[in-house]
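User: My instructor asked us to take a sequence, write out its structure as tokens, and then describe one feature of it. I'm not sure where to start. Here is the sequence I was given:
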Amino acid sequence: MRDLLADLVSRDRPVDAPRWHAFWDRLRDGRLRRGDVLAVSAALSTRRPGTATVVALVSSLRERAGEPPAAGTPGSAGPVNIVGSGGGPSTFNVSTAAALVAAAMGVPVLKTGSHAYTSRHGSFDLLEKLGIPRADSHTAALGMLENSGIAFADYFVYPEELRLLSAAVLPHDMRRVGRLFNTIGPFLAVVPVSAQVVGVADPEWDGVFRELAEQPSCPPTWLCGNDLGVDELVSFTDNRIRRVGDAGADAAELKLVPDDQGFAPGSMADLAPVADGSALVPHFLSVLGGDGPIAAVQTVAFNAAALAAAAGTFPDLSVAVASALDTIKDGAAVRLVERLRDAG
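Assistant: Let's start with the prediction itself. The structure tokens for your sequence are:
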């Protein structure tokens, strides 16, 4: 234990997967002191560990979680996921809106998320206010997916070790001492998806995320970012996408320019979250129905299009953007919310 902590602090050598497995075993057996668990969590979050240590950490957790049941019919592509790494400027729930729009376009979506961590309202907070249920098991998620074309997975998709870690550091808040686990969260969720779109707020994580996305246990991943530091695609600034693990993708980074999609000018004020919690749902439904700021609507359509393109439903991104905007305009995404509410 002391050697593991010393290596996390000094970074003289990476912590490999067997040492992480030994740490998780001791945590499960109750053989770790609270102070030691707190020290390891804080060391991971105070200073970004080396790439090899992060890859070994994620690999150890995914190995312990096992394989999820397959989703979709045999021979068809499975659902897709869209999720951000957190951090950067606060925005409204863009990825949740994009997931709903993509599902209304006919793209099966199995979305992961959480309560607010670095944002004002996390996806789970929004879903609760919308009255949309979350699946509490793989069976429930696959049932929701079959019935509605979209499912929102609860915390069961994350390794049990994370819950034990959170309990072990109490009364300290994991949002403070466990920030690293939120950042790498997109690679910790074990879900049966055929592709995922991951927003990267901090470019310093680009190399680490590429390594994580190249691991055999990770589905093909689109890593998205921009100079604004927003962990989603943004309609009014230049964006970049790197497709990792996609056999048909060029390894080069794609540059996406707003003018190429015909997007209108905008600013971060258009993407800002609401300050008043009572306005959360009306604001969200306004954007989802196409009545919000044009930059907010186009940003949601942009991310939904990326999700549809990653799924292979719309190979051409420009065509996918046009379809997403049409889906918003005709109210299909809002009607999907209404159906999900009724089902809940």
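For the description part of your assignment, you could build on this observation: The beta strands are 80-84, 109-111, 150-152, 195-199, 221-226, 239-244, 254-256. Try explaining in your own words what that tells you about the chain.
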